[in-house]
Amino acid sequence: MSLIRLIQELSSGMLVTLEIFFLTLIFSLPLGLLVSFGRMSKFTPLRLVVKVYISIMRGTPLMLQLMVIYFGPYFIFKVNMSNLPTNYRFYAVIIGFVINYAAYFAEIFRGGIESIPEGQYEAAKVLGYSKAQTFFRIILLQVIKNVLPSVTNEVITLVKDTSLAFVIAVTEMFTLAKQLASAEVSMTPYIAAGVFYYVFNYVVAFIMEKCEKKLNYFKA
C-alpha cells in the first residue's frame, strides 16, 4: 500500500481522533475549573462529593469509565440500546473523556489557585475588588502561568488516550491502523499511526511552549 493510499485510509480515523481531542479540551478545562471551586468550597457536603468524584475518576481506568458510561443505560436503567441516538457511542466517548480529564484538571487548578499568596486577595479587597473581580482580573492569569506545564502534560496524555475509544467500538485513527495492519499483514499502518501521534504531540508541545513563553513576562 502506497503512503498516499495509507493516509487516505486513515484520514477518517484521524478526524475522529482530532474531534475527541478538541471536544475533550473545550469542555474539560472549564469544567475542571468549576470542579476545583467545589473541591475548595467551605460547604462541606459539596466538598466531600467533589472529592469522591475526583477520587473515582483518578482511581479507576478511563477504559472502564467509558464502558460504564456506554453500557450504563442498559444495565442500570434497562434502556434498550436500539433506542439510543445513532451517535451515542461517540457521545459516550466525549462524556467519558470530559469527566475524566476534568477531574485531573481540577486538581491542577486547585494547586495553582492555592499557590497564590493570601496577601494578593487581601490587597484586592482593600482596593474594593469583589471576589469575582479579584479572581478573574488578578488571580486567574497567575494561575494559568503556574499550571501550564502540568496542563501540557495532561494534554499530551490526552492525545495518546484518544486511542481508548476503541473499547466501545468508536473507530478512531489507531483502530483503523489495527484493521489495516491485519488486512495488509504489515506493520506499516502501525508506523504511520506512531508518526501521527508523535507529530500531533510535537505540535501540541510546541504550542504550549509558546504559550509559556508568552506568559514569562508575568511574575507571580
What do you see in this structure?
It contains 8 helices and no strands. With about 220 residues, the protein is mainly α. α4 (about 90-115) crosses α6 (about 130-160), α6 (about 130-160) runs antiparallel to α8 (about 190-215) and α7 runs antiparallel to α8. It is flat, with a radius of gyration of 21 Å. The mean pLDDT is about 90.
Attribute tags:
mainly alpha, single chain, 220 residues, MetI-like fold, 0% strand
Classify the secondary structure makeup into a structural class.
mainly alpha
Order of helices and strands: HHHHHHHH
Distance between the termini: 54 Å
Gyration radius over CA: 21 Å
CATH architectural grouping: Orthogonal Bundle
Main sheet specs: none
Reported by name, the CATH topology is MetI-like fold
- Report the count of strand segments: 0
The CATH C-level name is Mainly Alpha
Continuous helix count: 8
CATH homologous superfamily (4th level) name: MetI-like
